[in-house]
Specification:
Belongs to the cytochrome P450 family. It is found in: Endoplasmic reticulum membrane; Microsome membrane. It holds the Pfam family p450. This protein has one domain: Cytochrome P450 (Cytochrome p450, Orthogonal Bundle). The protein contains 19 helices and eleven strands. The chain is 52% helix and 8% strand. The protein has 505 residues and is of the alpha+beta class.
Length: 505
Amino acid sequence: MIVLVFITVFAIVYYINFRRSRKRLYELADRIPGPFDYPLIGSILLTIGKDPLELVSYLMQLMHHLPSPMRAWLGPYLLVVVDRPEMVQDILSSPDCVQKPFMYDFFRLSKGLFGAPADMWKRHRKLLNTSFSPAVLKSFVPKLNFKAEQFVHELNDYVSDECFDAHPLLARYTLVSIAYTTLGADLSVEKREVLEEYSSNAIRLFTASFERIYKAWLHPEFIYRLTPAYKVEQHRMQLFKQMSRKIINIRHAIASANTANDDRQDSDPEDKQEQPKAKIFMERLEEISRDPNNNIDEDGFQQHIDTLMFGGNDTSAQALSNTLLTLGMYPDWQEKVYQEIMEVAPSGPISYEDLSKLTYMEMFLKETMRLIPITGLIARVPVKELETRGVTIPSGAIVLIPFLKIHRDKTIWGPDAEVFNPENFLPDRCAQRHPYAFIPFSQGPRNCVGMKYGWISMKILLCHVVRQYRVATDIKLADIKLSLSLVMKLNKKHLIRLEPRIDVR
């Protein structure tokens, strides 16, 4: 009895001191509307009993009828949901709001650019930015054309009246092309099953990690490690890291061969001419990791590769798969994309200069990414109080920015916000909207480092595919339901049919 009384008194005192230490946070939180507060558990009841598919539908209904910004509580954690573009700009452009919340640690990539703490991220991002400079991106174009031509040739085997799932093929393609360009490793020699297993395993791994976020009882690491889910995660993580380890070994072999070649050339220094060139991501990472001041250990080195591989592989594969679906859904729009391609690059490789001329294709891609976003939401944690449009967001709050809501908001996109229309991205319409009304790759200093690479690689592949094939599907946009995850998932497979174009030049 005495022990019980002691524990009760200790808990009460601890709770009072805990509340007192967060007095300012509670004061500011009370100024933000939020109807879903319950003692201790906050708003967690909203997520209980709902799978990812149900959760998206439910939250979308709520957000369309709730104020913005809106407050909610995840246990002791204050969430502030912001979907007004002008406020989103204030948050994402603030140097005091580049930190990501603790939930990003669930993905086990806390040393890569995706989940690194703000101080580490700032240092490494600055060092790695040059690996996506215009000169580097331009050097990728011939390689991306080469891989796209190979992919189009492979699609010949799928031409029929039967539908097939395009996503596994595109996941393999994007994995190989990313490794070939940014990592300096040719994975095309790997077995098809190995490459597809990497992509499918990574999707399952990070989907489970995302689901842990809204299962608050699994947040404490010591509890999570007692569950079967942890054992499954560890097994999947081992499989996931095998690919980056393979790439590291390939790079070591290349370095050894280059060293041997240099030794042979030392006898004739007249033949050696230094020709400085822009370094790709892997070359830059290898270079900066040799400097101990940059604090990149072996695990951090591998996590940077893992981050780039999965971040580029799954997002690009999903965006391309979604775009092939929408091309099939809207044949009239597809024809306009095709006619533009035939005017800009009717045959042969797509040049770097051609890419900027594919304005209608870019509009079509953007409209697909607006209605079927790659990422449903992102989160940031301000390290100082953040003022935005008369609202003070307290330090330590978790700010949620729901792209899915912003990109379908009728106050931004008009009464037909749910209707697929690439002309939403005509220059005059874009000029009338806030620049943060459409941010598929995030925005501000902590945006996607490979954003421009993504646009280039997707345009080149789509040029080759649409120039060669007419795409069809039986799926309608209304049939698609989205599932909340690190990369948004569909309730449908990407089932398309291909018909060769007889007028290919």
